[in-house]
Design a protein that fits this description.
Arc Repressor Mutant, subunit A; 4 helices; mainly alpha
């Protein structure tokens, strides 16, 4: 089996750099207020928006999505994310 085949089975999720994990944690801590644009973590928030972990309002504020919350739980809090209904059953 080629290395690409092995790695594609191991890495099913996009890698988050340390700076992006920190930005995800700050976003989670901000709760319903979200994070305004124009801060130093904008590049990470925009990258994670493309991954579906973050959404951006018309006013330019960033908010965490359900997928982002699950990734935060798994990668930042180091807990197993709960399965969505119907997944894995």
């Amino acid at each position: 089996m080629k290395k690409e085949g092995i790695l594609s089975k191991v890495w099913k999720e996009p890698y988050l750099e340390t700076c992006c994990r920190s930005a995800l944690h700050r976003l989670c801590l901000s709760g319903a207020l979200g994070r305004p644009e124009g801060l130093q973590d904008d590049p990470c928030l925009k990258r994670m928006q493309g991954m579906g972990f973050v959404t951006r309002s018309a006013q330019g504020r960033f908010y965490i999505t359900e997928e982002g919350q699950a990734r935060h739980t798994q990668e930042v809090l180091k807990r197993k994310a709960p399965l969505k209904p119907g997944v894995g059953s």
